[in-house]
Design brief:
This protein is mainly α and 223 residues long. It contains 10 helices and 2 strands. The protein has a two-stranded antiparallel ribbon with strand order 1-2. The two termini are 50 Å apart. The mean pLDDT is 84.
């Protein structure tokens, strides 16, 4: 038997033995997650705001939470440190009016900020709730997440200083994001029904006009 076949036989024996060992030794271990445990992880917030928890938080409250939990990485005004992406900046009143950040159509010297790219406010809320602060994710109660989101909206000059964000008015604030129209699903990566038909995609139409060629492609192109 060749050396390669020897190795193959040995690996097969290890796999079979390991599988049997794992099956025999771990029978009966584990249990179904309880409804409470499932709810603790089922915290995603969709773009249509389904899953948004009840609650509210003001810009003023958010400032204190931000200074204690976020400023060390994201800067005192959302300008970031040397390692984190800047949260605010790069948008204009015209962008907020049109819902499309004009600077993204041109080379950006310092890189786009979060609010230059953000199309859905629920995405920001969901990320803070799920992943922040860095050292203790999922530790912030909903009211604190609302307050932090409100403060960031204020830093981005979208809401005034006396504003309170809640699950009741988030959809209205969404309409003020500078890049709310900046994301499109009208392309082939979304194969479902077109947006005109109530879907998210373009009906599965390809994004390119290339012709399929499996052989003699160079001659087909006239090369």
């Amino acid at each position: 038997m060749s050396r390669s076949l020897d190795w193959a036989a040995a690996l097969l024996l290890l796999w079979v033995g390991g599988s049997a060992w794992a099956t025999d030794d771990y029978l009966g271990i584990g249990r179904d997650a309880t409804p409470t445990e499932v709810r603790a992880w089922d915290i995603d917030v969709r773009a249509d705001f389904k899953g948004l928890p009840p609650g509210a938080g003001s810009v003023v409250e958010g400032r204190g939470i931000y200074e204690a939990q976020c400023a060390s990485c994201h800067g005192s005004r959302g300008e970031s440190d040397a390692f984190s992406v800047a949260l605010v900046g790069g948008t204009t009143p015209d962008d907020r009016e049109m819902g499309r950040v004009r600077a993204l159509s041109h080379p950006v010297r310092t890189g786009p900020t979060t609010f230059m790219l953000l199309p859905n406010l629920s995405s920001l809320f969901d990320y803070i709730q799920r992943a922040m602060p860095w050292g203790a994710p999922k530790s912030l109660p909903p009211d604190d997440v609302y307050a932090l989101t409100a403060y960031l909206l204020h830093l981005a000059e979208i809401v005034p200083q006396d504003f309170t964000l809640s699950d009741q008015n988030m959809a209205e604030v969404q309409k003020k994001l500078p890049n709310r129209h900046g994301m499109t699903t009208d392309h082939g990566l979304w194969p479902g029904a077109s947006s005109a038909s109530g879907g998210f995609g373009n009906g599965g139409l390809p994004d390119t006009q290339a012709e399929l060629c499996m052989q003699k492609c160079a001659s087909a192109r006239g090369e």
